[in-house]
Design goal:
The chain has about 70 residues and is mainly α. It starts with 11 loop residues before the first helix and ends with a helix. The chain has three helices and no strands. It is rod-shaped, with a radius of gyration of 21 Å. It has a domain of about 35 residues.
Length: about 70
């Protein structure tokens, strides 16, 4: 059994963690795009100003209050 490895060579767990981190970065970009689209569409709603005036209700949460 070989127990040593090159110092610059990541082990299996590191590779898995890096792969998952990359997926999370992609998901965060996609979620940001969805949030921006929701805010754009919601801003055109006639009651948008009313719903966004609720404490803590940004455009995404306020849009959910309509449903």
């Amino acid at each position: 059994m070989v127990t040593s490895r090159h110092p610059n060579q990541p082990n299996g767990r590191s590779c898995g963690a890096l792969a998952l981190a990359g997926q999370l970065e992609l998901l965060n970009k996609q979620l940001k795009g969805f949030d921006e689209r929701i805010a754009t569409v919601f801003a055109r709603h006639p009651d948008a100003e009313l719903f966004t005036s609720f404490p803590g209700a940004g455009p995404v949460i306020a849009a959910n209050l309509l449903t």
